[in-house]
Write a structure and sequence with these properties.
The structure holds two protein chains of two kinds. By secondary structure, chain A is an alpha+beta fold. Chain A has nine helices and twelve strands. Chain A has a single domain, classed as Alpha-Beta Complex (Sulfite Oxidase, Chain A, domain 2), CATH 3.90.420. In chain B, helix 4 packs across helix 5. The relative contact order of chain B is 0.09. Classes of the chains: A alpha+beta, B mainly alpha.
């Protein structure tokens, strides 16, 4: 007999939205005649067009993927919220700047290279991003360091598969990531103030054991479709037990290295943003508490959506990665 | 160009100017809350509300402090009669700011409010500024002015401390995009520089008072 011990972070049976309901949701919306690229962008872009911005919005396309069998432990954040509330300083520091400034972003052609301390470095072009590895859906909680959170149905493949393919050398201890550097397309990179004072290109890093952990995802889509640029098209990282800023967007380079790579927010304010950035309710940000978070749910202003933050964002299975480490010092 | 006397603000204009101020201050406030309640204020209406009301309060406070220099430069003495109204709207926005923080952000978690006030200097600073503006609002009536006599002016001089605290609160609250708060800080500095003689006098007076004690 097969005995399964569910992880504490896994959804309980009664919390699971029935698959048929989940899949029918889009049909219901469609039947109401709401679907169309502009309606998906919601009010922000409607306002932009009101002021004469008639640029065609970025077009996403449907993806083939294996649905998340476990589904969700909580209600998904509405798609419109996920694609209109973004931190992507390359397109401006306001939450709605990215959706307004990124619609003309070019994602094809694209090149993502995997290089550094590896036997078989390689690179992927735009089509490879969706074909090289089988795509699967993962419903993850996303906890921003600013104490808000979402539940996002990502689509992608595990970073571990990609790293394995490059055959890392035993000397590889860390993985460094880099966002596209293209000031012509990204106003935040052109102007230091528009980009929030960050030195571009945006860089991030993980320890290699964190990078190959089965939870670590390279995402190419959400809600069944390719990523919109404000969410990091065409490919981004998702590390669900760390604060959102670790999940670097629009990646062009992944480098295996023996030294701990610099990371953008850590360089900007090392006392506020550590290298690990693990979600930890007991370690406050200097300017706000991390003990609780506001779940962006699309409910009314009076909804009680402030919830307790869980250690590792509830993904306890990563705890062994940090055995013996002082997580207050290594925040 | 029209002669300055044609542009002179006259007492019978005040009603209309005040009406415009009422509309200009209330309409955006009501509209923004309406948008927030109908979930049309971007991905996170709570943050949007906090930013709108906070910045609105600061802008109106700056505007109220601009009245005196403007009245002097433009030789429009009657402008002074608008100062109280604009100041009151500044507190209206500040009140909405604090109320939205407690109601929608902290969701009436009073222990969290208490610990945030104690632990986060920028919240502490903001609260002190809010309390000063509250005191100025409560004593804004003619009656209070008569009752307080000389003390009224010294109490209302605290507005200079409030505006400094508000600019610090804003700068301190942002994660990294400091250009906007720096611009506001510069405007605050200019407004205070304009009053440097008065501030020097006030400072000396309070210094003397402490030595006497």
């Amino acid at each position: 007999m097969l005995i399964k011990i569910p992880k504490t972070s896994a959804a309980k049976e009664n919390q699971i939205t029935e698959e048929s309901v989940y899949h029918r949701r889009r049909d219901i919306i469609k039947s109401m005649g709401f679907v169309g690229a502009s309606s998906l962008l919601g009010s922000t872009s409607a306002q932009a067009s009101f002021f004469g911005n008639d640029d065609k919005p970025f077009e996403t396309r449907a993806l083939d993927y294996a649905a998340d069998a476990k589904q969700v432990s909580t209600k998904l954040t509405p798609e419109e919220k996920i694609i209109t509330h973004n931190n992507f300083y390359e397109f401006g520091t306001g939450k709605s700047d990215p959706v307004e400034n990124a619609q003309q972003f070019k994602v094809n052609p694209w090149r993502l290279s995997i290089e550094g301390l590896a036997e078989a470095p390689f690179s992927l072009d735009y089509d490879d991003l969706f074909k090289q590895f089988p795509l699967e859906e993962r419903v993850y909680r996303l906890r921003c360091v600013e104490a808000w959170s979402m539940v996002v149905p990502w689509i992608g493949f595990s970073l571990g598969a990609l790293i394995k393919k490059a055959k890392p050398l035993s000397s590889a201890k860390y993985v460094a990531f880099e966002t596209l550097y293209d000031p012509k397309q990204m106003p935040g990179q052109k102007n230091r103030f528009a980009g929030g004072g960050i030195d571009y290109p945006y860089v991030e890093g993980l320890r290699i054991d964190e990078a190959v952990h089965p939870l670590t995802l390279l995402s190419v889509g959400l809600y069944g479709k390719t990523l919109p640029p404000q969410n990091g098209a065409p490919i981004r990282l998702v590390v669900p037990w760390k604060y959102g800023f670790k999940s670097i967007k629009s990646i062009t380079r992944i480098r295996l290295t023996d030294k701990r790579p610099p990371t953008s927010w850590n360089r900007l304010a090392p006392n506020e943003y550590g290298f690990y950035a693990n979600v930890n309710p007991t370690v406050d940000h200097p300017r706000w508490s991390q003990a609780s978070e506001r779940r962006i749910s699309g409910a009314s202003l009076f909804a009680r959506n402030r919830i307790d933050t869980q250690m590792f964002n509830g993904y306890d299975e990563v705890a062994p990665l940090y055995d013996g480490m002082n997580l207050r010092k290594n925040f | 160009m029209a002669s300055p006397s044609a542009l002179k603000l006259k007492p019978n204009h005040l009603f209309w100017v005040k009406l415009i101020i009422h509309i200009a201050a209330l309409a955006p406030l009501c509209w923004t809350y309406y948008q927030a309640f109908t979930d049309n204020l971007g991905g996170d209406p709570v943050t949007a509300l906090l930013h709108f009301t906070g910045l609105g309060a600061f802008k109106l406070l700056i505007l109220s402090l601009l009245i005196t220099p403007l009245a002097r430069v433009l030789k429009q003495g009657l402008l002074i009669r608008l100062r109280r109204l604009i100041g009151l709207y500044s507190f209206t926005y500040a009140f909405a700011h604090f109320a939205s923080y407690i109601l929608f952000d902290l969701q009436l978690d009073w222990s969290l409010l208490l610990s945030e006030i104690i632990k986060r200097p920028y919240i502490t600073v903001g609260l002190i500024a809010w309390l000063i503006l509250l005191a100025l609002t409560l004593t804004s009536t003619k009656k209070a002015q008569r009752y307080l006599g000389k003390k009224w002016q010294s109490l209302h001089n605290w507005v200079y401390i409030a505006v400094i605290l508000v600019s610090v609160h804003f700068l301190w609250s942002v994660k990294s995009a400091i250009l906007e708060p720096l611009i506001y800080m510069l405007i605050t500095t200019l407004l205070l520089l304009y009053r440097r003689e008065k501030l020097k006098r006030l400072f000396k007076k309070s210094l003397n008072n402490t030595q006497k004690r």
